[in-house]
């Protein structure tokens, strides 16, 4: 005779086993989610995602922050790798040196054959120039999600999308909440300031008397209360080529030099034979931007504060060194040294720029 208690246990076990079998398809379906990319296209993603290739330059930093490391980041742009390894992020995550860069060219053109061989679960690519950058992959059956950094909304969109892809929605949302708070705090300060916006030029590259400048009114200019002289002149593109004469005509109050370009520094603008007449040069207001990409909504908040502090040094008294140290701890779970904060703040290159040492150097 079988003990009734044992029989009940066996029946319960059988019922549980049948229930698990019946539930299996539902669980599998729940793991397949739909994410919306910058095109508004729905991309089906099977989680857990094990490998992600990211081709746009600023996006790997956001993924590392959201995912808490580099384990699932299998390929990046060679230009992104160079910038990361030459900066503080590469010091915090030296394993970036082992991430592949042969799946995409520096100009974002994908190597479809190598991507098919590497077989990442999903590729993140720029939306712009999709016929060259996206279509070849999708035609080869590669899953692609596009991103754009043209507006604050699109930047926030890719942070949210990465959170969904990685199964880290709450963490991604915490960064977006941080950005909301930062934007609100800056706005509150600027609303009480009755003064014209500082006019800025943002130089991405230079060759003699020819310059590449940011043409559109970037979100981080708007948030920080700055006006782009190139936009005033009618440009709307991300980058445009202009001559030194155009810069003289526009006569910006402040000139920024992009941190992504190691070949150009503030001294190149101060010593330029044609640009001596700029108000920005006369007043020493030429700055290398910090090695914190404002185009990523995961960490861009720190750049927003930096731009605001440069534009309105008498209005923003926040200790940027503390802000950066606390921010990197939140983003990457790492403690920064004073030397690393100096590197992020471009203390060496901005040493001759007006007010910079007083505002950003470590206190003795």
From TrEMBL:
User: Could you tell me which InterPro entries the record lists for this protein?
Assistant: ABC_Transporter_SBP, ABC_transptr_periplasmic_BD
Protein name stated in the entry: ABC transporter substrate-binding protein
Q: Has UniProt tagged this entry with the keyword Signal?
A: yes
Matches recorded under SUPFAM superfamilies: Helical backbone' metal receptor
Q: Please tell me whether the keyword Signal is annotated for this protein.
A: yes
Keywords for this protein: Signal
**Organism encoding this protein:** Hoeflea ulvae
Q: Which residues form the Fe/B12 periplasmic-binding domain?
A: 51-319
Query: Which interval of the chain is the signal sequence?
Result: 1-28
């Amino acid at each position: 005779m079988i003990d009734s208690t044992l029989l009940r246990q066996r029946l319960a076990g059988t019922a549980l086993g049948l229930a698990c079998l019946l539930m299996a398809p539902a669980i599998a379906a729940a793991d397949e989610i739909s994410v919306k990319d910058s095109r508004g296209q729905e991309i089906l993603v099977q989680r857990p995602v094990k490998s992600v290739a990211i081709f746009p330059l600023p996006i790997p930093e956001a993924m590392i922050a959201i995912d808490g490391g580099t384990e699932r980041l299998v390929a990046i742009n060679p230009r992104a790798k160079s910038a990361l390894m030459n900066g503080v992020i590469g010091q915090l995550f030296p394993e970036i040196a082992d991430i592949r860069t042969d799946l995409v060219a520096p100009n974002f053109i994908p190597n479809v054959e190598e991507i098919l061989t590497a077989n990442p679960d999903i590729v993140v690519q720029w939306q712009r120039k999709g016929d060259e950058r996206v279509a070849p992959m999708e035609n080869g059956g590669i899953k692609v999600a596009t991103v754009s950094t043209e507006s604050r909304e699109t930047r926030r969109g890719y942070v949210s999308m990465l959170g969904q892809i990685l199964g880290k929605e709450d963490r991604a949302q915490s960064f977006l909440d941080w950005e909301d708070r930062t934007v609100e705090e800056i706005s509150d300060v600027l609303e009480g300031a009755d003064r014209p916006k500082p006019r800025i030029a943002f130089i991405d590259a230079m060759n003699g008397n020819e310059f590449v400048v940011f043409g559109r009114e970037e979100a981080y200019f708007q948030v920080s209360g700055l006006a782009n002289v190139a936009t005033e002149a009618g440009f709307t593109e991300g980058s445009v080529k202009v001559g030194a004469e155009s810069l003289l005509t526009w006569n910006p109050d402040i000139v920024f030099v992009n941190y992504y370009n190691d070949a150009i520094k503030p001294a190149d603008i101060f010593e330029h034979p044609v640009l001596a007449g700029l108000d920005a040069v006369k007043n020493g207001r030429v700055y290398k931007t910090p090695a914190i990409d404002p185009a990523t909504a995961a960490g861009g908040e720190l750049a927003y504060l930096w731009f605001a502090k440069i534009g309105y040094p008498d209005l923003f008294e926040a200790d940027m060194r503390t802000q950066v140290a606390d921010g990197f701890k939140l983003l990457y779970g790492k403690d920064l040294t004073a030397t690393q904060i100096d590197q992020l703040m471009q203390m060496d290159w901005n040493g001759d720029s007006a007010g910079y040492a007083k505002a950003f150097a470590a206190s003795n």
